[in-house]
Amino acid sequence: MISQNNNVSAAAPAAVVGAGVRLTMDCGGPWIYASACREATMLQQPFMCQVCRSWAALDRVVSAHNHNTSKPSKLSGGIFLYEAQAAQAIQLLQAIIKRNGAATVCETGFNAGHSTLLFLALPNTTVVTFDTFQRGYQRAALRYIRHDLGLDSRLHVGVGDTRHTVRSFAE
Question: What's the rounded Cα separation, in Å, for the pair 124 and 115?
Answer without folding.
Answer: 16
